Amino acid sequence: MHPELRRELWAVFFLSLSGAILGEIAGSPLAGLSLALALYALLHLNKLRRLHRWLRRGTAGPIPELGGMWDEVIREVHKADRASERHKERISGLFDRLQAAASAMPDAMVVLSQRDLIEWANPPAERLLGLHAQRDIGSRIVHLIRDPALTAYLEAGDYHEPLVLKGSVEPYVITVQIIPFGASQKLIIGRDITHLIKLEDMRSHFVADVSHELRTPLTVLHGFLETFQDIFKEQDADLHANLALMQEQVERMRRLVDDLLALSRLETTPARTHEERVDIGPLAASLRDVAQALSGDRRHRIELDISGGALIGDVEELRSAFTNLVHNAIRYTPPGGLIRMRWVTDAQGGRFCVQDTGEGIAARHIPFLTERFYRVDSGRSRATGGTGLGLSIVNQVLMRHDARLVVESVPGKGSTFTCLFPPSRLATDAQPLSPSETALP
User: Fold this and answer.
1) What are the tens digits of pLDDT across the range 180-193?
2) Highest CATH level, class, for 105-192
3) What does the pLDDT read at residue 15?
């Protein structure tokens, strides 16, 4: 037992005994005992009052001397208070260092509460987002950054992909990434990507300009080679063969230039400039004719499974995308193989599928197929005459039509390239099929 507690118990015992004895002398032992205990309680209430007064002053004044267990309590309280102060100082110092580090960063950083109220912002947030680090504390961020895209982004709650916004001051372009943390708080990180956008624009214009300038000399070269082939056809077999090889490479360069120009146009021109109803049936029938012409003496089996339906979009862009998929299927499917085109609709939208029985693609290559000049097998691509831009063009066209490309492939068995269009892209009279009809084999 603690010594102070033992002394306190002895004090209570002797005080009670003294009160009882005095009460016995006065003729009322119980009254004497009660009086003694009342005096003991008043004494401790006075000490409690003094303790309360000291605590209300914030334990900053001199420590009162109360005696007994009260001194032990005061010492423990004072010890805990000093430890708490040291802890608060460490936390405050750490917070100050974190704020200083965040303020020194070039990225805008904003802390939002559960209701999207601004709790803190660093100086770059003023430059990139137009916020005032002190004045805007407590304001809703959507009231200060009036961009519907940001409002929708906050409400959606899916922050896996960053949002690209125009900065508050032109010509800033920023990416906004939201990181949930704490008790329903959010950290907004805004990064200036203006220089990246400018570099991308320079690259696109450079590619477009160079490709455009190459078209004329390639056309002239192609024409002269055809003439030379006709002249030397009967005179020099070796020279004729060399000219044919040169013409083949010139034609390959022309295709590459055409694809570069097409890709540049898709990247630099706004979408939805020329949209109309695109009937899938006639478009697929023309694709079958193209596939049969490309197949030639390789005699692929070309099948259509198109029952009707229509999209809203740019017919030439869609034709270009679907044609690239058919070209790939023809190139990489051995003679006699099957190429099947299919169109189905359901509650999730429309699907245009090109299925082949070719060599297939290993799973590790699939995420990179839509990158420019990515090749699964460089030797095979050169042999088939591919430019490495076909799937990049497909991807750009689909993004301009709010769609996406899904690739499924099994090496040695073939591949299926599926263009997924949202319901908003279906023509109003295109009736969805039943679930049994939409199931792919």
Assistant:
1) 887 788 888 888 88
2) alpha beta
3) 62
Question: Can you name the CATH fold of 198-268?
Answer: Helix Hairpins (1.10.287)
How many whole angstroms separate alpha carbon 337 and alpha carbon 323?
A: 18
Domain boundaries, the chain: 3-96, 105-192, 198-268, 276-438
Give the Cα separation of 61 and 25 in Å (integer).
46
Q: Quick check: 5 pLDDT over 80? A: no
Residue 344 near residue 351 (C-beta atoms within 8 A): yes
Q: Which of 69, 47, 67, 51 is nearest to 59 (CA)?
A: 51
Average pLDDT, the chain: 79
Assigned CATH class of 276-438: alpha beta
* Domain pair 105-192 / 276-438, same fold: no
| 270 close to 305: Cβ distance less than 8 angstroms | no
Q: Return the structure tokens found at 60.
A: 């900053």
pLDDT at 154 over 90: no
Look up residue 279 and give its two tokens. 């009937």
- Count Cβ neighbours within 10 Å for each residue of 142-161 and write b for 16 or more, e otherwise: eeebeeeebeebbeeeebee
* Residue whose C-alpha is closest to residue 415's, from 346, 348, 338: 338
Q: What are phi and psi of 302, to 5 degrees?
A: -105, 120
307 vs 319: CA distance, rounded Å: 18
